[in-house]
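Possible regression after last week's pipeline update?

I re-ran a chain I had predicted before the update to compare outputs. Posting the input and the new output here so someone can diff against the archived version. Not blocking, just want to make sure nothing changed silently.
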Amino acid sequence: MFVGYGAEGVLKVAPCCFRVRAMESVVRILGLLVVGVSGLAVALSMSGVASAADDVTLVKSIPESGARTVKVPAGNNVRFKIPSNATTGYSYTVTTLTNTAQAAVSDAKYVAPSEASPGKGGNTVVQVIPMHSGITVIKFTNVAPGGATAGTSRVRLLFMN
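New output (post-update):
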C-alpha cells in the first residue's frame, strides 16, 4: 500500500496491487471507509459485508474562511477528516453547492477520539464518492452553540479524468 502526502496537506492512500469493484453500487450508497486488510482500502457496507473500494484522497484541513481547491485523481473518493471537538458545542454541517461529478456527499459525522479524556478532540468526517469526473463544491459551516454560524468555508473538489 502507498501512503504519502501530496500538495496542500492531502494524504494519498492507494492499494498497490489491484482493485475489486464488487458491490460498488452498495458501497457508493452505504459505504464506510476502513483502511487495512492486506493493504487494501476496504469499504464496509451497513450489512457488514466488505469489498474493495476506490483509492481515497484524505483531506485533513479546510480553510478557516474562504475557499480551497483539491485536485482528485481519476477513480478516487475523498474523505475529509477535520479536527474538531464536540464537547465545545461547536459542530460542522455540509452543503453541496455544485455537483457536476454527481457525487454522493455524506453528512458531517463527529468521530470521538479512541482514548477518551477530558477536552481531547476527535474529528468530523465527511465522505465524497463521485460518479464520474467533474466538480463538486462543498460548503462547510461551523455552527456555534445555540445555532449561530461561527464560520464558513468552501472546498472545490476537481475530480479529474
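Follow-up from reviewer: compared with the archived run. The first helix runs from residue 24 to 30. Marking as no regression found.
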